[in-house]
Amino acid sequence: MRNTIKITTAVLAAGALTLGLTACGSEEESSGSDASGPLTVAASPVPHAEILNFVKDNLAEKAGLDLEVKEVTDYVTPNTSTEDGSVDANYFQTQAYLDDFNKKNGTHIVPAGDVHLEPLGLYSEKVKEADELKSGATIAIPNDTINEGRALQLLAANKIITIKEGVGFEATPSDITGNPKKLKFKELEAAQTPRALADVDAAVVNGNYAIGADLKPAEDALVLEAAEGNPHANFLAVKEGNEGDPRVKKLAELLTSDEVKKFIDDKYAGSVVAAF
């Protein structure tokens, strides 16, 4: 039976406090790594937890892996709970996001294997084509550093705006150098962008949140990130030092199996693309 557990920041914070009070100082205890127990992975509900649950239900037992999946709906808790040992690993993010998170929060999370890509897309309930956006239209974009930069790069790649050269995925609205339609930008937490579609003219939405909102990126996006050559693969991640955990290695192997690739291809029909 599927054992998916919804968790909140408060619950994880309590777990972190308990860990802090009971840890005895060893590296293994402080990192939360216990290779003899189940491997607990925090993941965004869609598609990450769905992919993990496919592994759990179809591949893990035969491979001798005891896997627990904890669904988390924000982009902060998975890393902080992996850092403090509340969970063993997480699966939700890109390298650029992780690098920025580690730098800003003093965490020590590292990748343990690419799994899939979720193209970022521009969506609207008001227009059918990007060039139909009116002068002064408001576009919601994610407010975290890397996803905001990706959103602006997406708009620039489709000639909706222009931005400074060299800013890469750290671009912000202040880096916009050309805005012929005088677009306004509403910066929101990434999870809120699909919910804002009724109140704005368009929104740039991360693939997992788009799918969770019953949007079909391959069909519904006005413009969509190209999959080929895209550096934003989502991966399994652990606290530095736990890369050699045999459970982590086994899960990474299962997540890049032919069975998982077929599951991704069949279920997401191009809205999520295997990165292996």
TrEMBL record:
Keywords attached to this entry: Lipoprotein, Membrane, Palmitate, Signal
Subcellular localization: Membrane
Ranges annotated as spanning the membrane: none
Signal peptide residue numbers: 1-23
Pfam families with a match to the protein in the record: Lipoprotein_9 (PF03180)
Domain of life according to the entry: Bacteria
UniProt keyword annotation of Hydrolase present: no
Annotated membrane topology: Lipid-anchor
Keyword Acetylation attributed: no
PANTHER family in the record: D-METHIONINE-BINDING LIPOPROTEIN METQ, METHIONINE-BINDING LIPOPROTEIN METQ
Family, as annotated: Belongs to the nlpA lipoprotein family.
Protein name: Lipoprotein
